[in-house]
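User: Hey, quick favor. My workstation is busy. Could you predict this chain's structure for me?
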Amino acid sequence: MSELDLRLSTATAQDTGSYRLLELPSELCQIIESASEKTASLFIKGHPTEDAVLCTLEKTYAVRSVVLSNTVLVVTPSRSDPGGTVHIRDQLHEILELVPVVPKLHKLSILLRDMEYDEGDEDKQATMPKYSYEQARSEIQASEAEFARGLKERRILVLEGQLRPIAPAHLSTILELLLNYLISLSLSHQAAPIEELVSVLADEHEIPRAVSKQVMSWFGDVKEGLWKMDVDAVIRELGVGILRHHRHNPISENEFLKKWKNVVGDTFECSVKLSLLSGDYLRNLSSIGEEVTLTYFPSSTLPVDPAARFVELFLTRQRWKHEEIQHFLLDIAVNSKERDKLLLKHARALTDTEGVWYTARVSYNN
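Assistant: No problem, here it is.
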């Protein structure tokens, strides 16, 4: 091993610097080493009051500081003796590491408050508060792919460059109309002409073309002028639309299923199943164990902080089956491994003849 003289730099301030070492996970190393200029894009996002995140085109990573037990020196070769002397430019006591995290899309519901798009709102647009697509894209801590998916899942329209969450009742109306016209016009839900559907909605119901086109893109694949409907997604949304009215007054399961099938029509009633609504409802047995009722309980309205989320869940129910509680944790864990870690940290597992149950690790007072 060659020997080097290590010296403190006596150079001017322009030769010194402040450095940070960033440890890259293997998947990011592969992207940087093998990607083209476009796919290697990395972005640091965060308001001054927020912890910074690093975003690729597909994922979001938290940037965390890790204290080192030994000091790391940043050195450069000496200009006068590059082969035998190096100068110390900085000394580091920490490194930065990147950890995959759930994108912080929950801020959209706060930022877009009072900006909901509903039927007949065209005349109110001038006086409504505005939040643009580009502004949200730069401020929301999410990758490009996660941001686009978040707008779709939260049913947020982009109209003239502005973000507008669509009113749930109006969305249900549009979906019901689409199902009705598929039948009345004898169109295949696997290859329905977009222009024909958009035109009939605009001409007969004054639904703007930009709105109906975006709704169709949320609920299926749009390609070469044809719409391939995602049957499960449409059926689910219509089911949630009915269930949304029963947050405080439970509805009989049989009555709910009857209403749901009636809304979707004979053609699609065979696709109705409660599993489509997982994470949006609670199933309750009566005291005598005969009648089953359903209550609207959407995971999207629960706290995003894991500890607060578990408090809310265990205040709602003292114990949960594994297959039930997992659906209420999907939006706060990046994968099943992280979800299991959260369960291990905040809940206690019990097993009986009915399977695995989870209870709180601490007592909560209702």
